[in-house]
Hints:
Blueprint: H1 10-17, E1 41-42, E2 46-49, E3 60-62, E4 68-72, E5 77-81, E6 88-92, E7 102-104, E8 110-114, E9 119-123, E10 131-134, E11 140-145, E12 152-156, E13 162-166, E14 175-179, E15 188-189, E16 195-199, E17 204-208, E18 215-219, E19 225-230, E20 235-240, E21 245-250, E22 256-261, E23 266-271, E24 277-281, E25 286-290, E26 297-301, E27 311-314, E28 317-321, E29 325-330, E30 336-341, E31 353-356, E32 360-365, E33 370-375, E34 381-385, E35 391-396, E36 402-406, E37 411-416, E38 422-427, E39 433-438, E40 444-448, E41 452-456, E42 465-468, E43 474-479, E44 485-489, E45 494-498, E46 505-509, E47 531-533, E48 539-543, E49 548-552, E50 554-555
Antiparallel strand pairs: 1-50, 2-49, 3-4, 4-5, 5-6, 7-8, 8-9, 9-10, 11-12, 12-13, 13-14, 15-16, 16-17, 17-18, 19-20, 20-21, 21-22, 23-24, 24-25, 25-26, 27-28, 28-29, 29-30, 31-32, 32-33, 33-34, 35-36, 36-37, 37-38, 39-40, 40-41, 41-42, 43-44, 44-45, 45-46, 47-48, 48-49
Amino acid sequence: MPRRPLRAAAALIATLALLGACSSLLPPSSAPQQPPARPAGWHAPEVLVAPSAFAGVHGLAIDAKGRLLAGSVLGNTLWEVDRATGAARVLVPAPEGQADDIAVGPRGELAWTNYLMGMLRYREHDGAPMRVLAKDLPGLNSLDFDRRNHKLYASQVFLGDALWEIDRDGRKPPRLIRKDLGGFNGFEVGPDGMLYGPLWFKGQVVKIDPADGAVSVIADGFKIPAAANLDGKGNLWVVDARSGELVRVDLATGRRTLTKQLRSSLDNLTIAPDGTIYVSNMANNEIQAFDPATGALRTLTSGRLAAPAGLKIEGRTLWVADVFGFRQVDAQTGEVRDVFRMQRDPELDYPFSVGLSGRLFALASWFTGTVQLVDRQSLRTVRTLHGLKAPFDALPLADGGVIYAEIATGSITRASGPQLAEKQVLASGLGGPVQMVLGRDGALYVTEAVGKLTRIPLDASAPLRAVAEGLALPEGVAETPWGSFIVAESAARRLVEIDPATGARRTVAEDLPIGLAPGPGLPAPYVVTGVAVGSDGTIYVSADRNNAIYRIRPRGENQKM
């Protein structure tokens, strides 16, 4: 297959000259400034935004030992969190530990849902072997045991919409209870054997009879009810993902009482034997403990970012695609501000990378196959491209168009026109394009997962050229003020500087907490390691293994390339 089309559009060159994607490529003011020369080296990485546990936190449970357990889908891990100190450690590692929800059985058994794998895993106790009780159920989301008869139920949400009874021995196929419920999310089995939980897409909390699937509405009027738990006192406690509300519902009357206003992006909750309600927030890797008797709220663990991926810099502002949010970070102080939060802002679609122009943000998500173009002034989505084949990056253009890289097709495409319906393939046959940057020479530089940094001259003046090969899963890429490129080799957990003329490279930093492994069947770049370079040569890198952002300052006497 050819790596570029036969014809190149001359108009594209003029448009790209106005491209503001990676404003680090532009001078910070109209006044001419002398860029810094190449430094002798760099200082050790310093923390700009502090690390946190998880990579988005979801289901919660209190096990038979009194431990607070927490699940992470993106992080592929099941965690234990100290209820006194908030210290967190991995209890079930990746990939088997991938957990959207967790349930504890009447004898202390543990079961959890591998949401992206479509599996339900189970083990009798900590040292026991893990078993798969159900598989081939994409979007397997919530689950719980009936403590009277040891039956196990699980639901599919988002990637499916159904409620199942799961055979505890894993010998019989799951029994379908009901389909097309409307997203029966974080539910609990009551002492009466009924299933109590929210219908995500209907704004209701309901009771379902597992014998015949009959649904009874308990209360409605929620924005996005995400999970519900019983307190044994006649109340159903509900978290609303969009509003950030913790609500008490009287089971007898359906009367709702707002008990605590929290931040949006709530995901799940669990109630301890002492009545403490633990609530998870996916956008901040946060678990909070609420005492309904006193109204006291205590944060056990929290992060300022959830799962930072692609980065761009503009002056002293870092723009961060944070998967469960879109964030603005002060490059000097590390202060984090929300632009978008998952569920609070309904159009946000799990962004893994960000591109900038003077007018637009471009947020790309390989997970949803979308590129979202957002007006920077109004923060309104002006256009979303759907149905793309795992887009890992996108650069918006000054004319409202966009260039995007699809890892599944190995291609880079420009979309333009009023509806972005006009498509021009700029390059094809690439070995997994991951991240892109427009160089000062007018060419596009792209990291390829197969181990390359590739130069694509957009005026078709020369063929594609491999600037560097043999890289270890290169992801983030950014140009320095002196004309070299900084590339994150995620498989080697290092940053390197590459001379685009000779391909010569030198190491910037090693032993970085990057290179989070994907779950089975997912693309190897997974959560991309973002790289940005400021106008003074300072490097910023996102760390997908601990959710931090690091800053690396240049040091020593300047040198010429």
